[in-house]
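Consider the following assembly input.
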Amino acid sequence: MIPQLPAADEVFAAAARIAGRAATTPVLRSRTLDALAGCTLFLKAEHLQRSGAFKFRGACNAVAALDAEAAARGVVTHSSGNHGAALALAARERGIPCHVVVPEGAVGAKLANISRHGAVLWRCAPTQAAREATCADVAAQTGASIVHPYENRLVIAGQGTAALELLDQAGSLDVLVAPVGGGGLAAGCALALEVAGRGCCLLLAEPAGAADAAHALAHGAPPQDFVPDTVCDGLRARIGAPNLAVLRAAGAEVAVVDDAATLEAMRLAWQVLKQTIEPSSALALAAVLARAPQLAGKRVGVILTGGNVDLEALPWRA
Amino acid sequence: MIPQLPAADEVFAAAARIAGRAATTPVLRSRTLDALAGCTLFLKAEHLQRSGAFKFRGACNAVAALDAEAAARGVVTHSSGNHGAALALAARERGIPCHVVVPEGAVGAKLANISRHGAVLWRCAPTQAAREATCADVAAQTGASIVHPYENRLVIAGQGTAALELLDQAGSLDVLVAPVGGGGLAAGCALALEVAGRGCCLLLAEPAGAADAAHALAHGAPPQDFVPDTVCDGLRARIGAPNLAVLRAAGAEVAVVDDAATLEAMRLAWQVLKQTIEPSSALALAAVLARAPQLAGKRVGVILTGGNVDLEALPWRA
C-alpha cells in the first residue's frame, strides 16, 4: 500500500488553495512550430511561473494545507533545484520557517536562489542516503513537516493544477506532453486528465540518460543501477514509487529523447518562441517533434516546465 | 503641410482592419522587475507578434486598406528588416504581390525572412537615395503601392494598435514607454494615447548613437549629419517628418540610452522575463530603469517591440 497516492479530485482542492498565489501562466501558440510539428500546439508557459518553474504550485499547495500548529514549526525538504526555491518562496509568503538540505557541490546560483527567499540551508554529503538522513534529522530537531520534492501527495496534486489550467485554456486536448523526472508533474498530469481530460492521452518525455520511468513502465520495475547522465539537470531524480503507480494506472507512455535532440529543440524554442526555456523543458518539445507521425493533426498540450538557465553557459555554440 | 498625418481615431479603424490577422499579444508582469524599477510594469509582448515584431500591425493595416484594384497591383517598400518581412507576410495572406528593395550588404538572415514569405527582392546600392529611387522605379513599373516603413499614415495607425491593446489590457497607465527609430510606433502610440489614454504620458527611448528624434524635439529640427552608431539595429532610421510632427504635438519626451545600458537590460530581460527580446526592444526597459525616480510608484506600460536576434552572436560574453 502506498499511502501517499492522491485521489484525482485533490487536484481541484489544490487549485483552490493556490489561487491568487501561484500565477495563471499563459498558453503560447506558434504557427511556425505547428507547421514543424504537424499538429496544433498549446504550450503552457510554466517557465513564467513564480520562482521560474511549475514547482511553485506543489510547494504552495503543501504549505497552504498545513494547519496553524504545524505551519508554525515550518517545512523542510532536500533539493538543490527548483523545488527548494519554490518551497522557500511559498514558506516565506506564509511567514513560516523553511529548511532546505543541500548536498556539497550544489550549484552556487541555485543555492542563492533558495537562500534569497530566507530559507535555512543545511549541508550534507552528496548521496541520496545523506540527503534523506539529514532531512529526517532536521525534521526531528525542529518539528518541521517534510515536503518531499515529488512523492508528497499535496505536491503531486499541486503540480497537476498546471494541466488543469491548460485543459481549461486550450478547450480540449488529444494529447498532453510533460517531462518526467521524479514524477511529481507527471503524476499530477495523470490525475488532472482523470478528472478533467477524459479522452486525452498522457505522453511523457524522459532523457535517454535518465530513463528509469520508461524502464519501469516497460519492465515492471525501475532499473537496479541508476546513474543519471543528461544535460537535463532538472530530471536526474529517480522516479518515485507512488508516482510510478499513478503513471502505470493512467497508461502513460514515455518518449525517450537524447540530449542532442533536446538541445536542438531548446535552440528552436529560443529562436522561434522567443522563450528561454531550460533543457529539461525543451525535452518535451523534442519529444513532440520526434513523435510527429503519432501526433499528426492532433491538439497537443505541452507543459514548458522551467526557465532557470545560466546565460553564461548556453549549451549550444554561441 | 504634411499630408500623411493620420487623425488619432484612425487607430480604431486600424484595429478593426487587423483584427483576427495580427495577434493580440500578451502583457507580461514581473515582481522582480517591478522591484528593480520601483514601479508597476505592464510589458506588451510584441516580440511574440506575427513575423516576430510589432511591424506586422502597420503592414497588415496598409495591405487591408487597399481597394481590390490597387491590391491586385501589389505593394512595394524599402527595408531590410522587420518591416520588409511584415509586409511580405501581410501581402501573401491577401494573395497579392510584394516587392522589397534591399540594399547590397543586407544581412542574409533578414533577407531569408523576407523572401520566405514570397516577396520579390530588388537589390540596390546601400544609400538612402538609391533605396528610394529603386522603390519609386519598381512602383512605376508595376503599379504597386509604396508602403513606407514608418511615414505612411496607415502604417502609423497600425502600429498604434499595440498601444490601444496595452491600455485596454492594463486598465490604465500613467506612462507609456516605446523605442523610437523612424517613429512609426512612437507616432502610433501618441495617437492611441490621444483617443484612449488621456492622462498617460509618452516616454520614448532612443539610442545615444542614433538620437536624432531627441535632438529634433530639443532643437527644433533633426541634426544635419546623421550617422547612426548603435547595436540597436532596428532603430538606425532617421525620424520621419510626419512622425516628428505627431510627437511634437503630443509633448513626447525622449530618454537617450547608451548601448551598454541597453545590453545590460537585454540580459536582464532574458534572465528574469525569460523572453529573447532584441537590443532595440531592451532599450525601452533600460530607459525605465534609468528613469526610475521619475517613474516611482507609477503604472508603466512598455512595448517590447521585437525578438529577431541571432542566437549565434549574442552581444554579451557567453
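Chain A has 14 helices and ten strands. Ask yourself how this observation constrains the way the partners meet.
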